DNA sequence: CAGAATCCAAGCCGATACTG
DNA sequence: CAGTATCGGCTTGGATTCTG
């Protein structure tokens, strides 16, 4: 079966996961457990409310995160990876393995990427 | 063997292949054959000299492309994927497969991504 | 032919303040 | 608690011109 139109799923994927904060959020949620808004905020050092809510909304729109709101007082909102988001993890893992060859050249990445949860996998190799 | 420092190969990879034009160039060169500067320029519609030379230099610095200069008159410069660049193709292929699920929602991507050479793989599915 | 230099525009992102 | 509104700067990329 052939799709006649010319499109670029690769660039689309890059646009979905690109941006400064999205990967950090995905990595933080990679275990599949739901996390609350402020929990995520604490887990991604330096992120502002604007960037966090924007990123969460974006990832939710693409079906990578699920947002569940509990109307308690105060309100509680939880985010977690969808099944589709988990399929993304495998792809990102491959990308991470590939990028691992460059770590020696970029030690300055240590400082602002301590939150990346793929690092254990990289370290154990 | 364990690397004690905390780094993020995933973000590093994203920074290497990120940017507006780099993927287009990589896709254009994916067959492994060398291409000349202006050949690449024609193959990536809309790119300017500044962006092209900047992107090529960046990709060369990370060992994804090899640059070979022939001092003829006029000078001839050829670029081709390195072996390391070819390993990247496999990873990108996975990312492209993942992104393929979103094509229906983003038909506007047709117009400015006709150059993406992963599209045949996506179409045949 | 294969770029480099310069200047300019747009958009991403940050800081701060405010709200249901 | 979980966001939104607004403003402003800075980075990224675009247009044009020039050169070995």
Q: Considering the protein shown, what is the CATH homologous superfamily of chain A?
A: Winged helix-like DNA-binding domain superfamily/Winged helix DNA-binding domain
What share of the residues of chain A does DSSP label as strand, in percent?
Answer: 5-15%
- The helical percent of chain A reads 40-55%
CATH topology of chain A, what is it called?
Answer: Arc Repressor Mutant, subunit A
List unreliable stretches of 5+ residues of chain A: 1-6
Number of strand elements of chain A = 3
* Rg calc of chain A: 16 Å
Query: Structurally, how many domains make up the residues of chain A?
Result: 1
Mean pLDDT metric of chain A: 85
User: What is the H-and-E element order of chain A?
Assistant: HHEHHEEHHH
Structural class of chain A: mainly alpha
What CATH first level of chain A would be assigned? Mainly Alpha
Strand arrangement, major sheet of chain A: 1-3-2
- Corresponding CATH architecture of chain A: Orthogonal Bundle
Number of helices in the DSSP assignment of chain A: 7
What key phrases describe this protein's structure?
125 residues, mainly alpha, Arc Repressor Mutant, subunit A, 7 helices, 3 strands, globular, disordered N terminus, DNA-binding, HxlR family transcriptional regulator (chains A, B), WH-like_DNA-bd_sf (chains A, B), DNA binding (chains A, B), transcription regulation (chains A, B)
Concise summary:
Two copies of one chain form a homodimer. With 125 residues, chain A is mainly alpha-helical. Helices cover 50% and strands 11% of the residues of chain A.
